[in-house]
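Q: My labmate handed me this sequence with no annotations at all. I'd like to see what the chain might look like in three dimensions before we decide whether it's worth expressing. Could you predict it?
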Amino acid sequence: MAANQRWVSGAKTVAQVGQITYATYDVATTYGILIGAKSITQIGTGGTITTTVAALLALLQASTEPEFTEVTWSANAGVLTYTVPTAGAGKPVTVTGTVSGGTGTQTPAAVTANSGPNVWDIIANWTTAIPVATDTISFDNSSISALYDLSQAGATLAAGNILQSYTGDIGLPKTNNDGLPYTEYRPDYLALDCSSWVIGTGPGLGSRRLKINSGTVQTAVVINNTGTPAEFGLEAFLWKGTNANNTMVVRGNASVGVAVFGFETATLTTLTVDSGNVRIGSGVTLNTVVVNGGNVEINCAVVTSLTVYGGTVTINGTGAVAAIAVYGGRVYYNTTGTLGGAPVVQNPGVLDFSRDPRTKTVTNPIDTNWTRGVNDPDKVVTALVVDYNGCQPIPGLGTNVRVTRGAPA
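A: Here is what I predict for the chain of 409 residues:
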């Protein structure tokens, strides 16, 4: 039966404890520990597994690598134990024992699982249960973040609601700055199958970091507002999802990024922006875009059409734009991709080619009803043709004039 689950963050902090048991001493075996992308190793030494593990322990305790200093290390004979300090507020660590080059073996064992108010998959952090398929979840009136164990793909929730009164974070930054900085190896997005998300409803300051990965499930996303972004150069709401029928609507004072990190991908069949700031990454498949206001940066192709009624749109990179209509606002065409279709520019809209010196191709004449509708002072559009239809009369030429750029006779 479907249920409504609210984030209540009631779990007590429990430090994670784990063990690695090394066996079969071998002078040819290299014994080690891997955390994230970093490892510390010790080749078999001293004639026994006990002396080898003691030597490995000394290296771990002496390490200044921040991934390793987050953990307290101890050993007893061939058993290496690691403990996350309780100050870590339930932070999980992924410690992997390694052996290579000989006959040595290792066996991992979880002694105590991490828990705490920032851990997604703990029952005490929800009203009655960890959310499951068809449930609706909500975040409101809280500043306690959801940071750890964020992978819950596989069971599609009905809806997710993150109200503007929720000021905690969901997800982690790419760089861990809890101590000395290092590249975060834990999941940094909430990976959750959910049919719809509604963000930023109601009063409040909003969250400064919301990172959601919708995976392959069809998702409708509505962003009404967000908080001020937590990181310079990034948006407050960061989203990705690859279903071909995903939709997104952006309103209010929202800060939104879609697949903005390198090598990320996403798909939006429709994107509607009424206001706010939106950035679309280069790995996005973007079909139909309607912009009524705000500031929109597009770094990919527009597969179907771009229609602009207001605001500012900047198109960067090399992606093509299948069709464009500018009825208001300004579009900066900074891409080398071909502009196809039958471009339309109506007063007071402007299609502006002035900010990128690279050569551009516009397949068909641009139809405009005012003389300032097309701006190409550096002549970057090859074979530019503009039809001035319905304009005020052009001095000496009258109305309904076609201008074709060419070399002087």
